[in-house]
Amino acid sequence: MANPRTLARIAARIKERVAYALEFEVSDPRSGFVTITEVEVSKDISIARISYSVLGTPADRTKVARMLEGARGFLQSKIARVLKTRRVPRIVWTYDESIEYAANMDKLIRDAKRRDAEIHDRGFAAESGEDREEWEEEYEEFTGEDESPPPS
After folding, report:
1. Stated pTM of the model
2. Phi, psi at residue 41, to the nearest 5°?
3. Rounded to whole angstroms, how far apart are CA atoms 127 and 141?
């Protein structure tokens, strides 16, 4: 069992070395849009879970996953040279979906803001008498409330 600071140092070194190797030493065109997002090392330093993300389509993601599996031995040898430990952790690749999740959440927030602005603009028009009934129906549908908001 290793000290948590030691594990963090090893994980940082692995992340740095793998990212460098993927960018400059792996001569595979599929490695171009890979980002190493996180490395977790097990307490006994036997396994390194390397999270990665890919810029592109799901097909690109599959191609990159195959490329990473194929380059595992090469990357482990590169890690072994810089770690200088008795044991070299076995690499386990995991796809990191957090970037896609964040992009989706950003899109949802932008859509909600746009929709709020539309409803707000229609609300001002409805207060002046134009399209009040249509606005109230849309407000009820949007909020799930059965009564219209009090005029402000």
Report:
1. 0.71
2. -110, 135
3. 18
